Amino acid sequence: MRIDILTLFPEISLAPLSESIIQRARAAELVEIRAHNLRDWSTDKHRRTDDTLCGGGQGMLMMPGPIFAAIEELRTPESKVILMTPQGRVFKQALARELSEEKHLILLCGHYEGVDHRVIEQLVDLELSIGDYVLTNGAIAAAVVTDAVVRLLPGALGDERSHQDESFSDPTLLEAPAYTRPIDFRGMKVPEVLTSGHHAKIEAWKAERAIERTRQNRPDLLD
């Protein structure tokens, strides 16, 4: 897989992708991740990428010129262009799994008041939001999406079963509580069933606790 991130702040998007699982996936050449500064495609002598809004309004808007030039240079027939925006479809694990099957993702990061709408009409395949809140810029969101997608690539995790047992692998349930040693920590003991060696009982316990935890923290999922 190849992922190109178009942003005014490439260092922000790359910093969290240069450690741990994602860095190992990059080193193993499971994925190529590049972050590009949109100013490199600006034709303005000051490398401007924004201007005031037509019709008035507060803030600045990212101009179409540099974005069109960048995407036209990077795009291939296999590319999927995604705009990171709080107005987009909410990102969930099922969508991360879909995107992990793509060959090439171009993540366009909004800033200021967003991007000229002609970019959305002509270039963008998917508008994507990581939640109902506003960030300083889309580079942070692009890093989140990249992390969620790359860890699903075959070989990215040490145990391929890892992502199958996580929260949201089943979109209606959170994970059951998890414990490790010591068995007795300050008088708080690991549930006996987990040390029983009885796999059927353990699975039944996990299923019950997953429902219980989902009811406590995310009842909307059960609905």
Give structural notes:
The protein is of the alpha/beta class and 223 residues long. Helices cover 33% and strands 20% of the residues. The strands form 3 sheets. The chain has a 5-stranded parallel sheet with strand order 2-1-6-5-7, with helices on both faces. It has a two-stranded antiparallel sheet with strand order 3-4. The longest helix has 19 residues, at 199-217. The protein starts with a strand and ends with a helix.
Summarize the entry for a quick read:
By secondary structure, the chain is α/β, with parallel strands linked by helices. The protein is 33% helix and 20% strand. It is elongated and about 70 Å long.
Output the structural class: alpha/beta
Query: What low-confidence regions span 5 or more consecutive residues with pLDDT below 50?
Result: none
Shape: elongated
Q: Average pLDDT value?
A: 94
Query: Roughly how many Å is the radius of gyration?
Result: 21 Å
Query: Helicity, in percent?
Result: 25-40%
Number of helices: 8
Number of strands: 9
Hey, roughly how much beta strand do the residues contain?
15-25%
The side-by-side strand order for the widest beta sheet comes to 2-1-6-5-7
Topology as a string of helices (H) and strands (E): EHHEEEHEHEHEHEEHH
- Main β-sheet description: 5 strands, parallel
State the end-to-end CA separation: 36 Å
